[in-house]
Automatic annotation (TrEMBL):
Stretches assigned to the Transcription regulator PadR N-terminal domain: 7-77
Name of this chain's protein: PadR family transcriptional regulator
Span of domain Transcription regulator PadR C-terminal: 91-166
Superkingdom of origin organism: Bacteria
Matches recorded under Pfam families: PadR, Vir_act_alpha_C
Family matches, as InterPro entries: Tscrpt_reg_PadR_C, Tscrpt_reg_PadR_N, WH-like_DNA-bd_sf, WH_DNA-bd_sf
Annotated organism of origin: Nonomuraea bangladeshensis
Length: 169
């Protein structure tokens, strides 16, 4: 997900200033994707440059509320309507690490897997606790659930890696 499209989604429900966007973005993603305020304002400047948002008047505190434009709504609809393909996602560092450990033969691959499994289990426990404590609604729950499913899939993949490496011996 791009910050750009996330901000457009939030603005599609009404005007907001940068701090509000930051707070709502973090709440919507279950605080799993923290933004600094500089990222928000840099992105808003680009969105304005591209004609996707318009700044309003400054309020008494000097804050400017931004509004999504018709072009911004079209861009948001295009984004929502376009599936995310695997090749658009960042490369998985763990996959690369294990492949290089096997290929280079310089690491104890079983130990790499063991350490990763321990870290993933710890993360899974923390996510489960966070899910029980979540109070910010469906958006936050969906993000946490996704992270739980990814951690569970990683555990299954690590089991698979161990099995493949045993076959190779």
């Amino acid at each position: 997900m791009s910050i750009r499209h996330g901000l457009l989604a939030l603005l599609s429900t009404g005007p907001r200033h940068g701090y509000q966007l930051r707070v709502e973005f973090e709440a919507s993603t279950g605080a799993t994707w923290p933004l600094n305020i500089g990222q928000v304002y840099t992105t808003l400047s680009r969105l304005e440059r591209d004609g996707l948002v318009e700044p309003g008047e400054s309020d008494e505190q000097g804050r400017v509320a931004y509004t999504i434009t018709a072009a911004g709504r079209e861009e948001l609809a295009r984004w929502f309507g376009t599936p995310v393909v695997q090749s658009d996602r960042p490369r998985d560092e763990l996959v690369i690490k294990l492949a290089m450990a096997v290929a280079a033969g310089r690491a104890d691959v079983a130990e790499v897997i063991h350490k990763q499994r321990t870290a993933t289990m710890r993360a899974l426990q923390q996510l489960t606790t966070a899910k029980r404590a979540a109070t910010d609604g469906a958006a936050q729950r969906l993000v946490i659930d996704s992270m739980i499913f990814q951690a569970e899939a990683e555990q299954r993949w690590l089991d698979h890696c161990e099995a493949v490496l045993k076959e190779e011996r």
